[in-house]
Amino acid sequence: MSFELTILGSNSALPTSNRYPTAQVLEVPGFCFLIDCGEGTQIQLRRNKISFSKIRHVFISHLHGDHYYGLIGLISTMNLMGVKSDLHIYAHSELKTLIQPQLDFIRGDMTVKPIFHPLNFKKPQLIFESKKVEVLSFPVKHSIPTCGFLFREKQKPANIRKDMIKAYNIPIAAIKDIKAGADFTTAEGQVIANVDLTIPASKPTSYAFCTDTAFYPANASILNGVDLLYHETTFLEELKELARKTLHSTTKEAGEMATLSGAGKLLIGHFSARFKDISRFVEETREVFPNTEAAIEGRKYTI
């Protein structure tokens, strides 16, 4: 299974003329997930030709404005378009309190029905699950309660070897258990090990979103082996003291986190507006983790 990530916003709190606050769309078979919803998100959805009506799940990492100020505008536009659906919003429980007065002010009947799901900021939590995909939230280290999100394909069962079915006359009724890990016992009492009967399924696809956070190596075990890790790099290494003070990360800290996590690839973003040239962010991060790219508005990344 492949995922496709589209960057809508890559900047930190202050937008620039060409970088928007944080927002991303992750498309997996059957779902279109919106991750954070900074100001300007709906404009970026239009520019990238992503249908509003496809969005059914929104994940808000925390309640700093650059991560959710675009949400009420998005809901309002979806309502004006006549989108008729539930909109599941995974966020801090206070988000509903913050935007409910604005929802109440929308005139006429709401065609979009927001459904709020509170996050757990003390431990990892499975917050969404379908037959093929699951989403895990996990706490990160920031100045207010904040969660990262891990999107992953469910592990597929092993593939049974057709030559083994024929060789041992394996009945159809036994195949399901063998694919789930069981051994097989022949009519003569011979036990055939599962490892000899099956071919392991391909590694599940995964994507992790980590913003805003200080360097927090405790999460490396949660992110272990992730295919693509998005990690904030608000500051270059020269401002590491400011990063510590504000509980953000530097380039090299993001690279170290990718290394500790055994990530396949690192995508960096949440750039401070004080830096016009983000090439330095990539250069510094690659000193620690070579397979690094910058999150760029409008760019798509296939996982």
Automatic annotation (TrEMBL):
Pfam families xref list: Anti-Pycsar_Apyc1 (PF23023)
UniProt superkingdom: Bacteria
Coiled coil: none
Residues the record lists as binding Zn(2+) 1: 62, 64, 142, 212
Active-site feature positions: 66
Reaction(s) this enzyme catalyzes, per UniProt: Endonucleolytic cleavage of RNA, removing extra 3' nucleotides from tRNA precursor, generating 3' termini of tRNAs. A 3'-hydroxy group is left at the tRNA terminus and a 5'-phosphoryl group is left at the trailer molecule
MF terms (GO), sorted A to Z: 3'-tRNA processing endoribonuclease activity; zinc ion binding
Enzyme class of the recorded protein, top EC level: hydrolase
Keyword Oxidoreductase in annotation: no
Residues that coordinate or bind Zn(2+) 2: 66-67, 212, 270
UniProtKB keywords: Endonuclease, Hydrolase, Metal-binding, Nuclease, tRNA processing, Zinc
Cofactor(s) this protein cannot do without: Zn(2+)
Co-factor: note: Binds 2 Zn(2+) ions.
Record CDD domains: RNaseZ_ZiPD-like_MBL-fold
Catalytic activity, EC: 3.1.26.11
Keyword Ubl conjugation carried by entry: no
Subunit record text: Homodimer.
Family: Belongs to the RNase Z family.
Job of this protein: Zinc phosphodiesterase, which displays some tRNA 3'-processing endonuclease activity. Probably involved in tRNA maturation, by removing a 3'-trailer from precursor tRNA.
HAMAP family per the UniProt record, alphabetical: RNase_Z_BN
PANTHER family reported for this sequence: ZINC PHOSPHODIESTERASE ELAC PROTEIN 1
The name this protein goes by in its record: Ribonuclease Z
Taxonomic source organism: Maribellus luteus
